[in-house]
Amino acid sequence: MTQTEVRICVVGDELSVGVGDARALGWTGRVMARTRFGRPAMAFTLAVPGETSSALGARWQAETESRFGPEDTCENRLVVALGRHDVDSSLSVARSRLNLANILDVAETSRIPAFVVGPPPGRPEDGGRIAELSAAFSDVASRRRVPYVDTYTPLAQHEQWLADLATNGSTYPGQAGYGLMAWLVLHTGWHAWLGLPADE
User: Global pTM?
Assistant: First the structure.
């Protein structure tokens, strides 16, 4: 009997590919490195810089389709890595909610299990709006019983995260910051979602 292959597509903005990380791993590379599948697995990070949830909603299906395999030989999974560009683009929280809801509903209809990673802290002046956005995304995911990783709340006042942003002189973290994001993902249902034993 042929072993089912796992294919994971991560769709998101530049944060999903680790911009600012000297090791070029980002949180996705670190999470995959800590995931022991025990069978063939492929992960594809499909990132577009500056992308809002509206733009992500418009492209994710076409981009994942050619990477996912047939259901009888592949276990296809979707990671939605939401960034902070909805705030920059002045998208309403209602619109952002709807965008995520549409993505998750289409994924469910297509029988593709989804996992959502929320936006991390950025500029201090955007804090309140990112917090509101993260709470809205969390609500949308929980209503659909989809795992959601809140990266905003634990990192908003985290010394290492803030030091990383200050060192980089931007809204992008460095190695420590992406390591923190990876830890949050790994400890918020990642292994359970994949049907794997928890990471030690």
Answer: 0.96
